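User: I'm curious whether this sequence folds into something compact or stays loose and floppy. Could you predict its structure so I can see for myself?
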Amino acid sequence: MKHLVKPTLLAVLTAGVMSACSMAPRYHQPKVEMAETFPGAAANNQRAGEVAAANLGWQDYFADERLKQIISLALANNRDLRVAALNVEAVRAQYVIQRADRLPALSATGNGGRSRVAQDLSAMRDASGRQTSYIAESYNVGLGVTAFELDLFGRVKSLSDAALNQYFQQKQVRDSTQISLIASVAKAYFDERIAQAQMDLSSRVLTSREESKRLTDLQFKSGVISQVDVDVAEAQIETARADYAAAKQARDQANNALTLLVGKPLPDDLPAAAPLSQQFVNAELPVGLPSTILYQRPDVRAAEFALKSANANIGAARAAFFPRISLIGSIGSGSNDIGHLFNGPNRTWSFTPQITLPIFTWGQNKGNLDLATARKNIAVAQYEQTVQAAFRDVADALVARDSLKKQYEAKRRGEQAQTNRYKLTQLRYKHGIASSLEQLDAERDSYAAQQALLSTQQTLLENRADIYKALGGGLNQQTAEPAASTTVTTTTTTSTTTVH
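Assistant: Here's the prediction. I'll summarize afterward.
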């Protein structure tokens, strides 16, 4: 027994020491060529006391209580987010299975049996020397290790590292799904609100045009105006009706989109909606350097974990060229009498090491290594593409923000001017100074200016949601405490999350 324990302990200790070795290439984070600053971000760098978008809780970013409750419902019921969370659990289970191969699998066994040995087959003889039948009994119990691989070249460790990084990758995919979900809910909500505002505007214009139509009919009967003026007034009414129907369709479709995102019909007890001009708490989001923003985005981190997983698979492919040593052993006790099963002299043991040498598998192993290398190169390209796409997302959102603010202010001033013109033309028309065509033209221009202003406001609101998403905001419900140090490095560190 002592002779067995010492070699076994030595083998286990050796396996533990050697498992620290790995043939995977040393990982280096790829350097991605991109501009040092975002377009238009030089005057809007993060200042002391400001909270970065990635740390800003969505409860503290959006101001509309109705929208915030809808976002809460979506986070609790959205099917895409639920699938992403379940995928995390599935990959986590795969990692636990793979990690278990790094430790010996100890199992207990026990068996017992009774059998009758025939007289002609019996080695037992009676007093007269004749063969005699008998009942044979046997009992065995033991502990055994089955095919535990000594990870001398890091094959098992590399496979475990690959599975761990796949788990981290899936967690980042889940976080990215949440960020996208919050932005999608906000944009669908803005679409619904703008569509409702368009309906209200079309309804007011329709009422005004119907009132004007009655006055036009009276003037036509009095011979003051011609049939042309009546037809123009009728066409304007039908245009307003068509606009109202289109706005209603847009509102209903936006509501359907919200229902899909939330995962169930919206409840009736939601708070009243805030004005469209009061949808956000912060006037601007601080934007720093790309290195402080992009490497925090879940999609970028997911791409890097995929790259690390592919890098670890190369180690496993390299280790396949070398011998594999497996240990098979057991220790226990056996007896033909259950009462003597655990007596000292009845102990049993076995030790069967096994080695597998690759001889005629060079082509297969070389192909597997080439495949693993190619997949790593693909992962590098995908990582670089993800970083560049993330940079473009932020840059496009910032460029659009600056342009949309200018567009909105210009259209707001234009809408105010058209509204004033329409009011003055109405007064002139009532006093017989302006013609009906002038009045209709002024009303049409005012209506078009209000529609254009609402459309620009919708795009501006959606842009605010896009910027929050592009900067990695949406993971926190409440704003996270700012870090004590303001120094940010561009190197992404390996996660140390413990998986049980």
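Summary: The CA atoms of residues 142 and 275 lie 75 Å apart. Confidence is low (pLDDT under 50) at residues 1-5, 483-500.
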